[in-house]
Design brief:
The complex is a heterodimer of chains A (272) and B (79).
Chain A: H1 2-11, E1 16-23, E2 26-33, E3 43-44, H2 52-62, E4 68-72, H3 74-85, E5 94-98, H4 122-127, H5 135-139, H6 143-155, H7 162-166, H8 194-202, H9 212-216, H10 223-238
Parallel strand pairs in A: 1-4, 4-5
Antiparallel strand pairs in A: 1-2, 1-3
Chain B: H1 2-16, H2 32-49, H3 72-78
Classes of the chains: A alpha/beta (272), B mainly alpha (79).
Chain lengths: 272, 79
Amino acid sequence: MNDRVKRWLEDGTVDLFLGYKMIMGHPLPHCFVKEKIEEVNDLIIGPSRYSLEKIATHIAAVKPDIKIGMLARDCNQRALNVLYIWNQLNPENIRTVNVNCCPSSLKEHGDCSYLEHEAAGSYKKQVGIDNNLQPENIEGYEQSQRLSRWMYEFQKCIKCYGCRNICPVCFCQECSLEHGELVGTGALPPEVPIFHLVRAVHMAGRCIDCGLCEDACPVDIPLRLLYRKVNEIVSDGFDYKTGTDDSQSPFNILGDAVTLEPKPIQPAKTAN
Amino acid sequence: MTVKRITFLQELLAFIGLEERLHLSWISSAEAQKFVQVVTDFTEKIRELGPNPLAGYSGIIKPPELEPASGFGKDQVAQ
């Protein structure tokens, strides 16, 4: 692999290559360039991961024509797909070296820092939401329980913006989460559940289920689970598989004619 | 576009536990009767659902009324 990267850098296939290098004992994202080609020997692959495609997006925003090579797992590939669709990156300028990823029926061995979340403690299981659950498990809870469980999780938020900052598909110049009129500023916890719902809504048609947001979250909010539900709604309701579909997202303004009808008012299910 | 977003949001809110509190209807300025009908129906429904559980939210919602997890409270008392 390292020889291939060297060859690419030398013959100009790519101008720079994004990978990982061990720095002070930590595998950190690193940009390898032709001028320091000997560094490529230190290029490593391992379970740690980072949204390299986000770095690529930032670079491409400044230099649109630069050719970028990067290591890519399956989640990186899905994120790249989404970024191509949203015109953040030009597929002609991106070359990837595919590396091993989550285990599946095709791949038994996987290198990933986040295959399974650590088991939830008993208190979290009682009043919050176990990060290892699936959306259908949550739907099994009573409606009022669902609300209080989610609110328990959201209230822990310290508004570090870690989920947004790590997210490979968060590329907006202006972020609604920093907009004082949309989400109140200056208080902790942030305005819940608005803060998290705004983010969840913006993940529709974008989230590629890499789990980096949950990985980054210092207070263990089951964000991946929330966005999985988001993806489920998008795939069931709009027949769009985010990350693998190469068509525009259903939430693109220049979409097709809409055939959906507004739902009629149903009689209330529960009388509180 | 609106109908897509609202349909999506209805499902998302239901998942969070705020079911059926969002409604979308297209009413022309010439359809006064339809407007009255929709507003009356929806008001009636919201009344049945009761007040918004997040109304007057002041920072902390009490966890559901459950027994403390086994050992959680006891240990603290014992120490």
